Structure to design on (495 residues):
């Protein structure tokens, strides 16, 4: 066991020399929704991802990369560069009728990109607030937007059935959630969203002036439930007996194909050699909907590694350590300052939690990040929400979990048998766990009793972070959000 101040080393293997990235590259930030750690080809998955595998192998695979347990927290940290304790979004996702969002006094990533001369476009899932127009994408730095504003919907009808925890099911509302800029789109029923969003990005590329730097934020709906995909993508997986896993695999293949079509468009446009592609999941896979995070512990919604260690890579000829694997400690909030740096800007004067990681990723220089606050979520007890306290932090090799981190079982994909003990039988409500994640990435050896001094030291770091936290915002549902009041569509209801 190393001392607490033993820093995470930033090994990136194979070097290709030094130099700055090309000035103002085109940047594509692609997010896969609920994409499991096990579900990419190079993690030995039975699911085929030839495009993602190729892009990752030509770039830098991020194998010590962290996101958040669920959708809104990851997206809010990516777009704001701040931990969720600093935006009031500590507690879960924004529900459809909640008047909530990333605070308007936070400067979002696309706003800075525009300041540095970029054309900015968002395509796909938003899920960081829409109850007022000022919270929507085109009011927060994007030149254009095509997608849906909430967390999930039907892939073909683009309808969202949404209520709120604690509501009677009869109070769940149903409305259309597909938008182009400020307008509801009503003529895409029957068109599969992965295809729609891919084609939208291809159109953006084809119409774009190559002389202007381009920033595209593409948070796909795939592979979040509902498990829907054209049959043609499932045919290659008929050997997978589990229905959910088979459907999910088809959805992954549709996503992989879509990203491939985007790279083809970049090649045809002649700008691939000046393009950086960043790929990330938003949280761990949902095992009840076909996803898998084996051999990690836990899944979506938990603070175990299976909920927060993400698939990620960076591709581009400007990356100097191409064909390498990085074990640098990187967090989703780091994309904000890293991308701004690539745009030729800086984040001086902004109070961010993210760190510019470009030199670490591209060159293999020692990484600047030595710790990650995974979250501090205080207990909430209202008419519409009931949750216990939970928190987790990573400092160097060590990870501390406090409270209720979620189910901690180890779940293999359906075709594999779990060796040894795999079901978590511990009562998590008031737990304390300490792991050396570098030596024990699967969280099997709890060290909290053996090293109480390290528990105290990491607790002190949690307490220091908690002193900087803003109050949780998790407002009650607003009946005015009901789509029936807005021509059966989900729209900003306070305008």
């Amino acid at each position: 066991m190393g001392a607490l101040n033993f820093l995470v080393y930033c090994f990136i293997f194979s070097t290709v020399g030094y130099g700055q990235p090309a000035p103002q590259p085109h940047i594509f930030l692609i997010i896969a929704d609920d994409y499991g750690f096990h579900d990419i080809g190079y993690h030995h998955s039975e699911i085929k991802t030839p495009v993602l595998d190729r892009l990752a192998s030509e770039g830098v695979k991020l194998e010590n990369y962290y996101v958040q347990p669920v959708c809104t927290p990851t997206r809010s940290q990516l777009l704001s560069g701040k931990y969720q304790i600093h935006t009031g979004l500590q507690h879960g996702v924004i529900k459809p009728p909640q008047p909530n969002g990333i605070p308007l006094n936070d400067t979002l990533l696309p706003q800075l990109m525009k300041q540095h001369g970029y054309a900015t476009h968002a395509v796909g899932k938003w899920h960081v607030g829409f109850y007022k127009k000022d919270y929507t994408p085109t009011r927060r730095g994007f030149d254009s937007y095509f997608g849906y504003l909430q967390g999930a919907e039907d892939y073909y009808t683009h309808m969202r059935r949404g209520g709120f925890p604690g509501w009677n099911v009869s109070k769940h509302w149903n409305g259309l959630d597909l938008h182009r800029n400020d307008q509801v789109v009503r003529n895409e029923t029957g068109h599969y969203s992965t295809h729609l969003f891919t084609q939208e990005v291809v159109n953006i590329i084809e119409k774009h002036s190559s002389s202007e730097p381009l920033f595209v934020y593409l948070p796909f709906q795939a592979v979040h439930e509902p498990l829907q995909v054209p049959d043609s993508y499932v045919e290659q997986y008929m050997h997978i007996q589990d229905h959910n896993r088979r459907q999910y695999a088809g959805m992954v293949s549709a996503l992989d194909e879509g990203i491939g079509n985007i790279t083809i468009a970049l090649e045809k446009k002649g700008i691939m050699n000046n393009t950086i592609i960043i790929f990330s999941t938003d949280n761990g896979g949902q095992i009840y909907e076909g996803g898998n995070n084996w051999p990690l512990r836990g899944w979506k919604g938990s603070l175990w590694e299976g909920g927060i260690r993400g698939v990620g890579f960076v591709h581009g000829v400007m990356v100097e350590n191409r064909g390498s694997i990085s074990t640098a400690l990187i967090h989703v909030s780091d994309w904000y300052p890293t991308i701004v740096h690539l745009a030729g800007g800086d984040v001086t004067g902004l109070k961010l939690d993210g760190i510019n990681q470009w030199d670490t990723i591209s060159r293999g220089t020692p990484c600047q990040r030595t710790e990650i606050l995974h979250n501090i979520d205080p207990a909430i007890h209202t008419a519409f929400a009931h949750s216990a306290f939970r928190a987790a932090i990573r400092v160097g090799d060590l990870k501390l979990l406090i409270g209720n981190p979620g189910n901690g079982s180890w779940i293999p994909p359906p075709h594999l048998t779990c060796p040894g003990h795999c079901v978590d039988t511990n009562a998590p409500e008031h737990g304390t766990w300490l792991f050396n994640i570098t030596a024990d990435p699967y969280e099997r050896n709890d060290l909290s009793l053996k090293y109480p001094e390290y528990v105290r030291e990491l607790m002190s770091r949690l307490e220091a972070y908690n002193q900087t936290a803003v109050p949780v915002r998790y407002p009650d549902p607003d009946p005015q959000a009901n789509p029936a009041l807005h021509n059966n569509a989900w729209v900003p209801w306070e305008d």
Q: What stands out?
A: The CA atoms of residues 205 and 271 lie 9 Å apart. Residues 1-22 have pLDDT under 50 and may be disordered.
